[in-house]
Each structure stands twice: as C-alpha cells, then as structure tokens.
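fyi for ur records
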Amino acid sequence: MSPEKNDRRSLRTRATLFKALSDLMTERRYEDITVQDIIDRANVGRSTFYDHFVDKEALAEAMFVYHMDLLVEAMTPERFDAENFLPGPELFDHLRERSQMFKTMTSGRGMEFLMRKGQQYWSERMAERLQSMLPPGQTPKVPIPVLAHFISGVFVNMLKWWMDTKMAYSSEQMIETIKILVLPGVQAGLFGGR
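which gave:
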C-alpha cells in the first residue's frame, strides 16, 4: 500500500474518531464516555483506535488541537502587530455555534483538561506571534514565554468566563475587552515603557 493511501486512510480514521467523540459529547458528560463508546460510535476496531491514540484523553486533545488549528488558519492575518495578534471574534463565534459540545466537554474534570490544553495551545501560538512583532535583533523586556503565558492565561480565562456567563457579550465586545486588558502589557513586555 502506498504511503499516500495510508495517510488518507489514517486521516479518515482520525476524522471518524473525532466525530464520534464530538457526537457523544453532545449526548453525555465527557467523563462518562468510554473508549468502547467511541469505537462503537465510530464503527472501528479497538486496535484501530489504539493505533491512533493511547486513550480517550489523547483523542480529545488531538481533536481540540485539530479544531483550533483549523480556526486559527482561517483567521490568521498576514502580519502581526500590537493591534492584530489575538484571535478574532471568529473564535468566540465558533464557541457560540458549538456551545452545547463545549458545555458537555467542560462538565466535571473536562474543564480542567480544556483550560490546561487551551492555555498550552494559545501560549505556543502567542509566543510565535509575539516573536514576529519584535524588530530583528531586539530583545523583549519580558521573556517571550512569560509574556505568552500571561496573555494566553487572560485569554483562556476570559473564554471560560464568557461561557460561564452564558455568552452575555458579543464576540466583538469580548475581543475588544481582551485587547484593552492585554495590549498595555504586550507593549511594556516587548518594548518597555509604562
């Protein structure tokens, strides 16, 4: 079998498992879903599941990263600057459209998982974006990993708060609020000053 066919088959299998977990999460709490439930829904064998993922958490993490990567690719600007480095309102719109799935996923210990993975994911993306904002050869006033962790922490906690308050504000209002809160810190962390 050619590697290309194998890659396509692997991608199809992963997509099938993502859909199975996603569908199950709209029906019951993440904690209550078993690997057996997932493979039954996906109609794949247990060995096929374990060829791709070591456990349910690895599947959930891969699904989260896959969906976030797709969303980020769709909204990534050509160049990052102090006004345009955070995800846009599309991220909040995405969460609003899939609120039932996220609500189910964040029940029980799912919130801890989502917060941890969300912060790690956004911290890595923020570090790349912040580095691209620095002129060549300039050293930031605050180390990039520290600044990225700070920004992603604010961002992920604001997402959680927004979901907890039943999305009381528009996506645009949330992004503008986050910008007001973090832009002074970004400016000071990258370039110094007050």
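Confidence is low (pLDDT under 50) at residues 1-5. thats all i got for now
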